[in-house]
Each structure stands twice: as C-alpha cells, then as structure tokens.
Amino acid sequence: MCTAQSNAMNPPLIQLSGLSKAYQDEGRSQAVFTDLNLSVPAGEMLALLGRSGSGKSTLLNIVSGVDRASGGQVMVKGVDLSALGEHQRTLFRRRHMGFVFQSFNLIPTLTVLENLLLPLDLNGIRGRAAVARAEAALAQVDVEAFAHRYPDRLSGGQQQRVAIARALVHGPDLLLADEPTGNLDADTGAVVVELLTRRCREEGLTVVLATHSLELAAGADRVLRMQGGCLVEGE
Ligand code: ADP
Ligand code: MG
Fold this sequence. Notes:
This protein is about 35% helix and about 30% strand. It is of the alpha/beta class.
C-alpha cells in the first residue's frame, strides 16, 4: 500500500483510496500503480515529481475523470467520480476543474478572448458578463492586450499565461497542471509557475502540479514523488 498522509486540517478536496491503473499493452496488463492512497486538503498546492513514465499524467487524468481507474475510488469535493457515468464526469469537470497543459492547448481558430469565453459558455455564463469576466482574467495575468489576437501570434510564455487565465476564468475549485513549463525555457517557465502559484493562492484553489523540475516544485505546500507505483514523501 502506498499512502501519502497530510496533516492539514482542511477537509480533503481530493481523496484517492486503493487506486489502481493498468494499461493493456499487446495483450499484457501493465500496472502503473496498484494501491494508491492520497488525500489533498482543500487549498493545498501539491507538486508531483517523478521520472518520465512514472504515472504522473495517468494520475492527473484519473483525478480529472478523463480516464478511469482500473480499481479503487476517486473522490473530488465529496463526489465519487468512479461512480459517475461519462457525461456526468464531463459536467463535473467543466464546473469544478481547470487545466494547464505542457502544450498550452489553446484553440487555434479562436481568439484569445474567445478561448476564455468557451469554458464560461459551457457553464452557462454568456454575453457581456462573460466578456467582462474573461477580460478581467486576462488582465490578472497581464495578457489583456492580446485579447483579439489568435494564439499563434503569441510567444509560448504568453500562450501559457492565456491558458492559466482560461483555466481559472470559470472559478474552479481544483487546478490540474501537467508539466506546464515543459515547452518553455527555464526563465519563462519559472515566471509562469510563479504566476500560476500566485493566482491559485489568491483564489484559494487546490492545485496538483506535475513537474519534473525540483525548482518549480519548491513553491508547493507539499512535494510527493511518484516512484515505482507509489507516492513517496519529499523530494
Ligand atoms: P508520466 O506522466 O509520469 O511521464 P504517464 O502517466 O504518461 O507518466 O505514463 C505512465 C506509464 O503508463 C508509462 O509506462 C506509459 O508508457 C504508460 N501509458 C500511459 N498512457 C498509456 C496508454 N494510453 N496506453 C498504454 N500505456 C500507457
Ligand atoms: Mg506526463
């Protein structure tokens, strides 16, 4: 059993119990983890370190409900995601989660502003109220000047700022960031993570950040390392 305890007093926003995941590879079952237990209190910023292939993305995808565990339970905000159907999981994800990815994942055919209006629209927020909210979110990460540009006209660091604004604009409870600096140079990456950390703390968000950079993990409340299918404490 792999158990990562937390001493924090806040109720858990994420609770993983007996979680297992195996992929079928050429007819053989390959386990990524077999009995993972993790509690993340509301408001905690947790950094997940681990070598490439250790299972960080797999874990984030299961927490987000994009992927299903092979066994065990995933509770987010007291809701058992493993018991929800795909549509319900999608709705839950749209409402309560925001994502930042290595490759930014902005929609290239939409302007920066339109990229932010999308998660708002999916949550029923439209019209002038939506535009005002999107503009405010862009201003909070200093990219409001690019609202009417297309993403490919921005640098990587600027695109990731837009992606942070998009991840936060609908007021999620949980931010999942998968190697958010993987496509940025070291200096730009450090600035982007500092910004992400500051914005999430301002909003009181719970954050799970997967990174292979010890430096980037330094600003987290807790650092766990994914190793041999277990989460181990410390760096
Ligand atoms: P990390 O994000 O830490 O680099 P991943 O979660 O991407 O690790 O991968 C963990 C393990 O699961 C790796 O051995 C990888 O090859 C395997 N894996 C990931 N996704 C799939 C998939 N869709 N099908 C089969 N194996 C996969
Ligand atoms: Mg990964």
